[in-house]
Structures are given as structure tokens and as C-alpha cells.
Amino acid sequence: MTRHELYKAMEQEKIIMYDTFFARLERTPLPELMTRWIGILILDREYRIGTHRAEWLATVMWNSAALTVGEAELARRESERQKETERQAKAEQLRKTIKADRELARQKLAFWHLCSKVDHRRLVENFLPACDEFYQGYVRKKFLNDLENMPDRTVLLWFWQAIPPFSLKEEPSRKISLDSLAA
């Protein structure tokens, strides 16, 4: 907000610009003047002065309460702005993470669908020793004999850590040898 805009706002509030009042406005630095103006508008909303409102606004303008309330309001606005910026950054990061996870899932499923039944079994068997006993038993009992007919979501849920590529940093064109996984 410029000084001129601030003076226009004061005129709209019907504050009479006496020479001494105007001189004091001119001497006051713009940031302090804006802070005081914000403060008196908040105080005006709070107190709801009816009669002689313009005179009250002009008087309270130089009161320390207007400056204090204005500073508090500006601090609150800055805090809200920072929170909004942080929220947007988190939302962007989440969006990027979701996009990366989808791409990685797509690559994993593409690899899974290229593999044969024997390759599926070899992948899972190589992965199972790193898992706990319950997981090993459950997978062997429920999934191991029917790996090729598992829905994609189930494959990703149970075998995410077993299916290459393990990150998006790997070249997608790089061929992963199943024989090297068996060793």
C-alpha cells in the first residue's frame, strides 16, 4: 500500500486532514503508518464507535494501542502466509511422491508381467529369507502356487520390495537378469 492509497482510505473513512495531522502523517515512516492504520481498523471493528467516528480514528491513530494491535495483526498475517507456503510445499512434495510411486509401481508391474511363472517363483523365493517367519509362511501358503494369477494390487502389496526396479534412479532401459537374482 502506498502513502497515496493510505490517504485515500483515510478520506473514505471521513478523517479530516488538518495541516498538523497531515504533517504528522508525512513525518511517520510508511511501514509504521500502515501498521497504525491496520491497528485502528481492527480497534474500530472491535469497539464499533458510532458518533464522532472519524475524530476517534484520527485520535487513536497516534495511540500506542493502534501500533501494538497493528503489529500483532501483521505478525498474524505473516504467520498465515508462512503456513500457507509450507502447506503448498508439503502438497507439492506429496504430489511428487505420489507421482514417483505410481511410476515405480508401473515399472515394477511391467517387469512382473514380462517374467515367466518360474521367474516369479524365483523372485519371491529369493526375497522370502529376508522376511519374518509369519510373512514367509503366509506367502508360501496363500500365494506361492498361484503367482501368475495374482491381481496387480496384490503383487505390489506383498512383493513391492522383491520386484525390480527398486528406485526411479535406475535406468528404465537397463535389463535386470533373473539369473543374477537367483545367485
Summarize the structure.
With 183 residues, the protein is mainly α.
Q: Spans with pLDDT under 50 lasting ≥5 residues?
A: 171-175
Order of helices and strands: HHHHHHHHH
Global shape: rod-shaped
Query: Percent of residues in helical segments?
Result: over 70%
Structural class: mainly alpha
Structurally, the number of domains stands at 2
Q: Hey, roughly how much beta strand do the residues contain? A: under 5%
Cα radius of gyration in angstroms: 34 Å
SSE diagram, text form:
Blueprint: H1 3-12, H2 19-27, H3 30-47, H4 53-60, H5 64-114, H6 117-127, H7 133-142, H8 152-159, H9 178-182
Helix pairs in contact: 3-5
Notes on the protein architecture:
There is one protein chain. The chain is mainly alpha-helical and about 180 residues long. The protein folds into 2 domains: about 5-75; about 115-180, no CATH class. It has 9 helices and no strands. It has helices at about 5-10, 20-25, 30-45, 55-60, 65-115, 115-125, 135-140, 150-160, 180. α3 (about 30-45) crosses α5. The protein is rod-shaped, with a radius of gyration of 34 Å. Mean pLDDT is about 85; it is low at about 170-175.
